[in-house]
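Regression test attached.
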Amino acid sequence: MREVFHQSLEEVQSRLVEISELVTVAIDKATKAFGTSDVALAEEVIAGDSVIDEKSVELDELAIEILAMQQPVARDLRIVVAALRTSASLERMGDLAEHIAQLARMRYPERAIPKGFKSTFEQMGKQDVEIARQLTELLRTQDVAIADAIRNADDEVDELHASVFEKVLGAQTAADAAAVVDATLASRYHERFADHAVGVAKKMVYLATGDWIGPGESEH
Amino acid sequence: MREVFHQSLEEVQSRLVEISELVTVAIDKATKAFGTSDVALAEEVIAGDSVIDEKSVELDELAIEILAMQQPVARDLRIVVAALRTSASLERMGDLAEHIAQLARMRYPERAIPKGFKSTFEQMGKQDVEIARQLTELLRTQDVAIADAIRNADDEVDELHASVFEKVLGAQTAADAAAVVDATLASRYHERFADHAVGVAKKMVYLATGDWIGPGESEH
């Protein structure tokens, strides 16, 4: 029974890694689509999100099957519950990448990226891609030291998010409303993306050490 | 054992109802705080969110305990897993009410509600409060007919959300950047709030009928 459970967990883990890899590709492409107004690339992200959704539902079904058939308790049970939550977070991160791609598509053929914000969104996207890569690595290796790197990168995303609003509100010239809407939403999506990754990382640390950093979100 | 499980489920249900009631109060107060720039009311919502967070964590612990001690299978297992997810959605709805309150506090003593958007946000808030009330009722009665009412109200919120952007982008006068940011974020928070309620309602219908409306989100 113990051996069966161990194999099941390995299956869960490899599927989480797979979904996290798809999410990494999605946020990478979405950032590029948004930065370069590449509508074909945006379409790829949008079409690809249904694959992430399906794989997430399949993983949930597997986790529920494991609960039913193997009835884990104590730490084993918490690992399976954490997998359910991680699946939900990854699914949501995929949605957020899709939303960024939708912004790029919506404004096409105009540029989605508002004037003066190019480098900020490039940095934000770069951090989110790095966070997604690190999250994949954390899920693969269970090396909780990676959680710190994710939190640090999230702090940078939060700073960039705050800087977007400072820039929008401090602009000398009258703002183009569409640009302000796009900057606000894109920045929010990037910030939420990073926040979900931190949430998953916290759960991994909790499972590994029993040290719960705390409920709720780190968002400001 | 069956009787014990039944009692446990009643406890889970009554706690979900309690959290949903707190979320209803939160979105009601947040809407009023945002509409009238009532910073004291905003502070109440912000302080109250930690209670929602705590109760949500406690409910999760109870659900995990039920899984460990009573090892439910089949539909019983799915009910407990659905409770875990509902708890996460309610916690998030509380966060969104808090974010709306934070917008009111951030702009104080100026008005948070952008000029020309008063009635739109009043309607949006009213719909969200109604949705939260209906969700509480759905959790209390398990009457799946209420799920339709929630979906209809969510459609209205989506329309109001779209109208905010139309109004912002179609404005004749140069937009005040702060007003555009606030309108964008507040509208997004209201829309997400309703969306989470629809997600919970879908799970309830699924549990009651086995008829899964589909994964992912209804958001556009």
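Expected vs. actual: identical. Chain B has one domain: 2-209.
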